[in-house]
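Researcher: Please predict.
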Amino acid sequence: MTEKPDFHPDIAPPKVGVLLVNLGTPDEPTVPAVRRYLAEFLSDKRVIEIPDIIWKPVLYGLVLSTRPRRSAAAYAKVWMEEGSPLAVYTKQQMEGLQQSLGDTVHVSYAMRYGRPGIGFRLEQMKQMGCERILLAPLYPQYCGATTATAVDEAGDEISEMRWQPALRTLPPYHDHPAYIDALAESVRAGLAALDFEPRALIASFHGMPRRTLELGDPYHCQCQKTSRLLSEKLGRPLFTSFQSRFGNAKWLEPATADLLEALPEKDIRKVAIFAPGFSVDCLETLEELAMEGRDQFREAGGTDFAYIPCLNASEPGMKMLETIIRRELSGWLD
């Protein structure tokens, strides 16, 4: 057997890796930390499709001067002892998936914006011997501003590597039976725990400018399909809406805030709302929906309001995640 030369670097045994990717979060609920996070997030050309010559003066002259203070206050309302909810729950998903997949796979997680970054994790995993990596953006519905930018970042990072890992990406799973089943189980459990019977059930997805649909982004259609399949599974109608509008552009409709204000006028005063497009709870679900949404609904005349949590690291959520991950690892595992 040929011995390796003395100058040959040590190489870790080959492994298969899974990198879960979520949107991101500031390091702490403070104005400076939120400003750093927003500066990175809102500088992404996949997120803000406005020429720099127009957008950058607005971003640095207005947005980053005013929004970080409001956002930091909102983050403070939902911050957990272990950190940001999005980071805490994503880490729990990583740990649960690692346990279910076993030692044959190394599972890690990264954030598209903030820390730990995608590049840092890919380099770390490559040094550990991960020669084959499944990049898993945790967005059930594909969008250029979410899934695509995560894939872009991974590609940019491995372009700097001399020895690149083989890379696969998790496709959208908006209509996967395991995802619909997990949502249905979660919603049924949430409804069973309530002390009232909702007259309306609302599926609130993150909003996108309407222009993205007109340019061919499949996000709106995939959100609608998720709602349709889930409605059929639950055997009851759903309202589908879109939250988190920003700026003056026309956004996908109906807006969640507008819907919550309109329902009491139709004598629908008891509602339950959930966010199937979010893999884990975060600022947009815990503060915008569960808190602001509740206040909007009650101020409009609603009497009973409930927020049903995301799948997070729940049993149905982890079963679903393992199912779709194992499908994409086919051929890489014995």
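Model: The longest helix spans residues 52-78.
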